[in-house]
Design brief:
Layout (H helix, E strand, L loop, with lengths): L9 H15 L4 H25 L2 E2 L7 H7 L4 H16 L3 H5 L1 H15 L15 H19 L20 E2 L9 H19 L3 H5 L2 H10 L4 E5 L8 H5 L6 H8 L12 H5 L5 E5 L3 H7 L12 H18 L8 H23 L3 E3 L2 E5 L2 E2 L1 H39 L5 H17 L5 H13 L3 H14 L4 H13 L3 H14 L4 H13 L3 H14 L4 H14 L2 H14 L4 H13 L3 H14 L4 H16 L1
Antiparallel strand pairs: 1-2, 3-4, 5-6, 6-7
Length: 624
């Protein structure tokens, strides 16, 4: 049986509770603020440690869960996310309000606005509340669905180092999965500040954060919750104090606990209760409570269903257009922009249809006439539409160019029409875009090489080098293409640039050794091979090539050692067995040589060179 609902006026109670809170304050607020400050200090210490030592713990980025699911790489971010989810399953959704740096920025913005006597008015949308869950499914579930439909096996869980491209724990490439400083600041500004003023406190948590959707789902099974234990007068002070816009007093009245998964356990509602009837405690999870009493708490929404539909369409379009635009816009930034654009679209439609329209406290239209604030708003929206249309053309050209480029990469015959289409679209991307992403320069360079346009290819290589991109993988890929077409000088420069960003990458050292070998610089080639082995001692191919170079120099003993390592780390390496057999024969160890040649013969029975040398060894042994 539900408790009797008392009359509650949200506006009046908000004002009353805010006066009470300003006098009394939240007793948990200083502790939570100190915790969030500590989180940012730890982040600063983490970055400082990397800058000083050059190597540190891999970033504790929650999105690295995707790399664990898709590639099987166990990362520090995955372990951090797993621990946070496990804690949420017991204690509830504490991490978001006590440990998330994005929420800290949102609450800081709300606090600053309060000091300026500006109170952002939150919006309530039915459909946009599903955005975090849909984004989470897209990030974590959809790739697995694609994997199953394609019949691919589940990835094998394993650890990696920097030399393998994605270190699990200790790394020298701290920014491997993070945007540059400028983009990061813009992302924090939009996700942590702008969105708060426009859409309300913790708007990004409600309408954008996919990790919040995961924590919210797990929170439903957690026994730890906000509960009511004494006489509740239904004054609504708890609801007014809730920054997550939960109707706390109604949920307490109906269920005896807060069941809404948006509850972030910041405990402000406990401090706000005049009767001190609220507390945090353990009991039956909210999922059980809701099942027992399925009468929903009514929520008033700010948009008609058709307006919600418009917002969803705009949301999808903006995320599609802006995510990864120019290789710069992060996913979270695009989500925040999309929610703001969606709301602004509805306001723009209301300006056309209604007599009075407000954005927060600003009147955009009054008595059927657009105000000066409304004119500024309309100008801002029109500018945004023009930028979005231009960005859509850039994104389309980029998408088509990459699609044809990948087709060309997969086609052994390199059909001319595929290369021409890839080149045309990517050239348009570079021509009409506000900036040209360095990866577009790299792809154009390779396409020009295939078409024999070597001067154009060289020009694009110079653009890649001038860009000073930290993407070492991109430099290595382009260098490999240049080496394939005999452009060894440009390939060397790109390999060196790649190594400057990731000096621990053994594969890049090995590839550079190949360039030096082809240009007759055997001393440099040997040094690169030794560097590759320093970072990856079990690199069989590097041992093999270094052994071959040492044979040419007459260092047979060291050559034998490296060739033995090559066959030890890669037992089915027929050429290594052959070379080892040859060197052993040169040293007079005919029986050992014959054994190695026999292994090479069994692994590559059709190789005439191996057969001839085997017969030669037999003749030498018979002469003895």
């Amino acid at each position: 049986m539900a408790r009797t609902l008392h009359t509650f006026n949200p506006a009046r109670d908000d004002e009353r509770s805010n006066r009470s809170m300003s006098q009394r304050g939240s007793r948990f607020g200083p502790w939570r603020a100190a915790t969030l400050v500590l989180v940012h200090l730890l982040i600063a210490v983490h970055i400082a440690h990397w800058l000083v030592s050059g190597k540190t713990l891999a970033p504790l980025e929650l999105n690295e869960v995707m790399y664990t699911f898709e590639l099987g790489v166990i990362t520090a971010g995955f372990i951090f996310m797993a621990l946070a989810v496990a804690a949420t399953a017991i204690f509830g959704r504490f991490f978001c309000s006590w440990g998330c740096h994005i929420l800290a920025l949102q609450d800081l913005c709300a606090w600053i606005l309060k000091k300026l006597r500006i109170r952002p008015i939150g919006i309530r949308s039915r459909l946009m509340l599903w955005t975090p869950a849909v984004v989470a499914a897209y990030m974590f579930v959809w790739p697995q669905v694609v994997r199953l439909t394609q019949g691919k096996p589940l990835p094998r869980l394993h650890l990696r180092g920097d030399a393998e491209g994605w270190a699990s724990f200790a790394t020298e490439n701290f920014w491997r999965n993070l945007p540059g400083p400028g983009v990061a600041i813009a992302t924090f500004a939009v996700c942590g500040f702008v969105i708060v003023y426009i859409l309300g406190s913790r708007a990004f948590c409600a309408y954008g954060c996919p990790y919040g959707a995961v924590f919210g789902f797990v929170d439903r099974f957690a026994p730890g919750r906000i509960r009511v234990g004494g006489d509740c007068t239904q004054c609504g002070a708890c609801t007014a104090a809730c920054s997550s816009h939960i109707r706390v007093h109604e949920e307490l009245n109906r269920f005896g606990t807060v069941v809404n998964a948006a509850c972030l356990k910041d405990l402000d509602c406990i401090s706000a209760c005049p009767q001190q009837s609220l507390h945090y405690g353990f009991g039956r999870p909210s999922l059980v409570k809701v099942t027992e009493n399925d009468t929903a708490v009514r929520t008033r929404y700010d948009f008609a269903l058709w307006e919600e539909g418009v917002m969803v369409v705009v949301l999808v379009l903006i995320i599609t257009i802006y995510r990864g635009l120019y290789g710069l816009v992060p996913f979270f930034f695009s989500i925040a922009l999309a929610t703001i654009f969606a709301y602004f679209t509805v306001l723009s439609i209301r300006i056309l249809r209604n007599n009075e329209v407000k954005l927060n406290r600003w009147l955009l239209k009054r008595n059927g006439r657009i105000t000066s604030c409304g004119a500024i708003f309309v100008g801002f929206v029109v500018t945004g539409i023009l930028i979005t249309i231009h960005s859509a053309f850039v994104r389309y050209s980029d998408f088509q160019g990459r699609r044809y480029y990948e087709m060309a990469a997969e086609s052994a015959e390199h059909a001319p029409w595929i290369i021409d289409n890839a080149t045309r679209h990517l050239e348009r991307t570079a021509r009409i875009g506000l900036i040209t992403p360095v990866r577009v320069n790299a792809m154009l360079s390779e396409l020009y090489l295939r078409n024999g346009r070597f001067d154009d290819a060289h020009e694009q290589v110079m653009e890649v080098l001038a860009n000073k991109s930290p993407d070492s993988k991109l430099h290595s890929e382009l260098a490999a293409s240049l080496a394939q077409f005999g452009k060894f000088d440009d390939a060397e420069r790109l390999y060196l640039t790649s190594l400057a960003a990731s000096p621990e990458n053994a594969h890049t050292h090995y590839a550079l050794a190949g360039v030096y070998f082809k240009t007759g610089r055997t001393n440099d080639a040997a040094q690169c091979l030794r560097s590759a082995l320093e970072y990856s001692p079990e690199y069989a191919e590097a041992h093999f090539d270094l052994g071959a170079l040492l044979v040419e120099r007459g260092a047979l003993d060291e050559a034998v050692q490296h060739l033995r390592w090559a066959v030890e780390y890669k037992p089915d390496f027929a050429d290594a067995h052959y070379n080892l057999g040859v060197v052993l024969a040169m040293k007079g160890h005919l029986n050992e040589a014959a054994a190695e040649i026999q292994v090479a013969r069994s692994q590559n029975p059709t190789d005439e060179k191996t057969l001839e040398f085997q017969q030669y060894l037999e003749s030498l042994r018979n002469q003895r």
